[in-house]
Design brief:
TIM Barrel, 7-stranded parallel β-sheet, 16 helices
């Protein structure tokens, strides 16, 4: 099978005839610089610099069956948090750092309900840039940044299409719940869930249709059919199942269903422990999601819960990629591949390939299905 055929077969959730038919996706973003022999400062110069490094990385480690679409400069723009940048705020070869800071105010929930999500998002995104956007035409400057991200994905897709390798997703978004958690700050946001829960829910309800509309536009403009949903604050690592059901799931479910109706598959990036939340995904149309697990969720139990319902991607731990041996990586992959033969699985790293990953370990991961 070609890489595209492997991916399509995984999405069909039909059993695999051979382990070689299971696609492999190492989540390679910042790590691309390491085998390429350049610094983090270098790949932060822009999309072209990152893609040059990504191509060189693949020449060293082997090409994946599924590619990551975004360089670190783009990732830090769409994640909507303050960021410390290598070569500027950090050493040239340091990993970029998101800054957990309470910027959003409690009154902003009312603003979103009264004037819309965009009325709050534009000045917020402008304020967190490094350096912040200032002066007139803030809306244009923020929009230009998002359009630029989309154009970069479209350009990257053209390269990967030439190799018959699909992108994991074609645009990215986050549920209102998770966006508020990050922009309000985890501590303040947790207090809001107790002190003003109806305000939080009203803002989520008001924001979600706008988030859906923007997400569909982004995917279609890139010529794709998958969207990443970074629901990283909705796991049991952060909230209880009861809180998930009340505050997070209704709006996440609304997004996934709307994207599905638009012909778009949701790639739900599930950092943290999602095991108590996974049964909810059985309420959705079969094959409407790819669930990305990072190692904090028991992947064998997750596969049993969602087998035949949703596709799972994961979950070779970053600790193993960094400190293990190629033989240990291969043995871990063997367990995942044996488990996954019933279908609906993409072999990958648990979240991103870490900067201290051994090159030989990434080769072992990719070669485990070759």
């Amino acid at each position: 099978m070609t890489s595209q055929q492997k991916f399509d077969h995984a999405m069909s959730m039909k059993p695999f005839a051979s382990r070689k038919d299971i696609p492999v996706f190492p989540h390679t973003c910042t790590y691309a610089a390491v085998p390429a022999g350049v610094t983090q400062k270098d790949i932060f110069k822009g999309n072209d610099a990152w893609m040059d490094a990504y191509k060189k990385c693949c020449e060293v480690t082997g090409y994946p069956d599924v590619a990551f679409p975004l360089g670190p400069k783009t990732v830090t723009y769409i994640e909507q948090m303050k960021v410390r940048i290598p070569g500027k705020d950090l050493d040239d070869n340091a990993l970029f750092q998101f800054v957990e800071e309470s910027i959003m105010q409690e009154s902003d929930y009312d603003l979103i309900v009264e004037k819309g999500f965009g009325a709050w998002q534009t000045p917020f995104v402008a304020s967190i840039q490094n350096p912040p956007f200032k002066g007139p035409f803030l809306k244009f400057k923020v929009l230009k940044g998002f359009i630029g991200c989309g154009m970069e994905v479209k350009k990257n897709k053209k390269f990967w299409d030439s190799k018959n390798i699909p992108l994991m997703f074609h645009s990215g978004t986050a549920p209102a719940f998770d966006t508020f958690s990050m922009s309000r700050g985890m501590g303040e946001f947790c207090c809001d869930l107790y002190d003003c829960p109806e305000k939080v829910k009203a803002a989520c309800e008001a924001a979600t249709p706008e988030i859906i509309k923007t997400g569909i536009t982004g995917v279609k403009s890139a010529g794709g059919n998958r969207i990443a949903i970074f629901a990283m604050r909705s796991s049991a690592t952060f909230i209880s199942t009861a809180m998930f059901e009340e505050f997070a799931w209704p709006y996440l479910k609304q997004m996934i269903l709307a994207f599905y109706e638009a012909g778009i598959t949701s790639v739900v990036h599930c950092d943290g422990n999602w095991l108590p939340m996974l049964p909810y995904f059985k309420e959705l149309p079969k094959g409407s999601c790819i669930i990305e697990l990072d190692g904090a969720t028991d992947i064998a139990k997750a596969y049993e819960i969602l087998k035949g319902y949703q596709v799972i991607r994961g979950d070779v731990p970053p600790t193993l990629m960094a400190f293990g041996t190629p033989e240990e990586v291969t043995a871990y992959c063997d367990k995942l591949l044996d488990m996954a033969m019933d279908g609906g699985f993409i072999l990958g790293t648990g979240c991103e390939v870490p900067l201290n990953c051994k090159v030989e370990n990434l080769k072992a991961l990719i070669n485990s299905v070759r």
